[in-house]
Specification:
There is one protein chain. Helices cover 29% and strands 25% of the residues. The chain is an alpha/beta fold. The chain folds into 3 domains: 174 residues, Rossmann fold (3-Layer(aba) Sandwich), CATH 3.40.50.2000; 112 residues, no CATH class; 163 residues, Rossmann fold (3-Layer(aba) Sandwich). The strands form 3 sheets. The chain has a 10-stranded antiparallel β-sheet, covered by helices on one side. Strands 3-2-1-14-15-16-17 form a 7-stranded parallel β-sheet. The protein has a 6-stranded parallel β-sheet with strand order 20-19-18-21-22-23, with helices on both faces. Helix 10 packs across helix 13. The chain is globular.
């Protein structure tokens, strides 16, 4: 029996889906249920092992679609510059180093080789590019050995990919991916597969699934059909990570499902179970299936994360605020920055630390500087916050939609009151308005100044009413429902029920 968890990609600034999977991996380890986490996207800019290890996966738990058909294992990059150079004829005539980029020139051959290191001080190469006569010819990718080569030809003054080769440990070619007119052809020793959908189907078949296996689909975009069809040999589950429908486009006759879940809900008769993170979302989804469809699937509520313990600390930095998320537009961290600046006018000791990385980082940095707040609002970057939450007094969230909200769970697990919007499903799940935080009404027109004032008023109210201590205890009490022991029990129960159920 194996639990196969299917996702698309992963990056350094991972979303809540990847963190939810990492939590799940830990829980399944603890209840001794074998699990694999499958990533389907082409991931070559970084060694996937570095990305998965970064958020807590074990190497043996990871399957990457493109190396699955080889004997190369998921492992850190240990391939050296010397090994790369040994694979090229001749000796470089000069070299240049800029940060973690090393460039070797073969001037007698009118060519150069660029190596991209793991980091500036590392001797290990993640990938290299070979340019001849000013034309990009090939790229090589390494872990403990070379696992992929890309070949290019010039077209319209640009390098165009024509082929990828994936290797075995001994250097032999396991299979080739040829690209022509936008079409991918996968060439194996015993078969040719036309397009990525057929590759995924072949992959699913290679798992040799049985009714004792679970296939859990975390993301489906563009891969759903072959997975649904082949997973009928096992037990198929779908995790709903976000708001699953459009409120504004739904009426008594019609529901507009979220694009990410439309295929899964439309084909719910082929799904053995759905998983949602909150009881409220389960209630909504059960009612919607009954009203708008002919389906009545099994739906389980299982938090996407859990708390090993509830860290205690009484001596926290006074008037300290924290938020943690991807620095993305939809997280609206800029609203919080403006709110803290406004609240600071009456609470002079206020400080605000922002944890996370993402595309909005520079915009936020500029905004903080523009508002003259650099001495009390800090961008702290990405780090493990497990032991950090308890140093703060209050958590702020400006997200207008959360399927669950891992950071919210972690915040109450360290006794932090939360101030955020009264929106499904995260804030409503963790915050009892007036008891362990405040829920703000949403602003349909999202007038930033008004939103900032609303947050600032609640920050001031929390402190001026001297409720920090009582709200801290209320957050700890709410967090007890998310202790690991309880979530482990929920997963064990789901697996037992699903694997022993008869499909109707």
């Amino acid at each position: 029996m194996t639990v196969y968890n299917i996702n698309l990609g992963i990056g350094w600034a991972s979303s809540g889906v990847e963190y939810a999977q990492a939590y799940r991996a830990k829980l399944l380890r603890q209840i001794q249920e074998p699990a694999k986490f499958i990533f389907m996207d082409m991931i070559l800019a970084d060694n996937i092992q570095h990305l998965t290890e970064n958020i807590g996966f074990k190497d043996h738990e990871i399957i990457w679609l493109y190396t699955h058909f080889t004997d190369i294992k998921i492992a850190p990059t240990t391939y050296t510059v010397e090994q790369v150079l040994a694979g090229f004829a001749g000796s470089p005539t000069r070299e240049e180093t800029t940060g973690k980029v090393k460039r070797y020139f073969y001037e007698d051959q009118d060519s150069f080789l660029t190596c991209y290191l793991r980091d500036e001080k590392s001797p290990y190469v993640e990938r290299c590019e070979y340019v001849s006569g000013g034309i990009l010819v090939r790229k090589d990718y390494f872990s403990y050995t070379r696992y992929c080569t890309e070949y290019f030809i010039p077209k319209n003054n640009q390098a165009h990919l024509i082929e990828r080769r994936f290797y075995n440990e001994d250097g032999s070619v396991a299979y080739r991916m040829q690209v022509a007119d936008g079409q991918e052809i996968y060439c194996f020793p015993d078969r040719y597969l036309l397009g990525r959908q057929e590759l995924i189907r072949y992959f699913m078949q290679s798992l040799n699934l049985t009714k004792q296996d679970l296939v859990i689909l975390d993301r489906e975009t563009d891969i759903g059909q072959p997975i649904f069809e082949e997973a009928q040999k096992a037990r198929l589950g779908v995790v709903v990570h976000a708001e699953h429908y459009s409120v504004n486009s739904t009426d008594d006759q019609y529901i507009l499902w979220n694009n990410y879940y439309d295929y899964q809900f439309t084909n719910a008769d082929k799904v053995d179970f759905f998983i949602v993170a909150t009881d409220r979302q389960k209630e909504v989804l059960v009612a919607q299936f009954a009203k708008y469809t002919q389906h009545s699937p099994a739906i389980y509520t299982i938090p996407v994360g859990s708390l090993e313990s509830l860290p205690q600390k009484d001596s926290r930095k006074p008037f300290s605020l924290i938020t943690a998320s991807r620095l993305a537009t939809e997280k609206h961290i800029d609203w919080l920055v403006r709110a803290v600046v406004e609240a600071k006018k009456e609470l002079s000791a206020l400080s605000f630390d922002i944890y996370g990385k993402g595309g909005e980082e520079e915009k936020l940095r500029s905004l903080i500087e523009e508002l003259g707040a650099t001495d009390y609002i800090q961008l702290k970057g990405h780090m493990d916050l497990t032991a950090i939450y308890k140093d703060y007094e209050v958590y702020l969230s400006a997200s207008t939609s959360e399927g669950f909200g891992l950071t919210l769970m972690e915040a109450i697990g360290s006794g932090l009151p939360i101030i955020g919007f009264d929106v499904p499903y995260g804030n409503q799940n963790f915050v009892r308005d007036g008891e362990n935080g405040y829920l703000l009404p949403t602003e349909p027109d999202q007038i930033v100044d008004r939103i900032a004032r609303s947050f600032a008023e609640k920050i001031r109210l929390l402190y001026q009413s001297q409720k920090v201590a009582s709200m801290r205890q209320a957050s700890y009490a709410r967090a007890e429902d998310f202790l690991t022991s309880k979530v482990e029990k929920a997963w064990f129960q789901l697996i037992e029920e699903v694997t022993h159920a008869e499909r109707i």
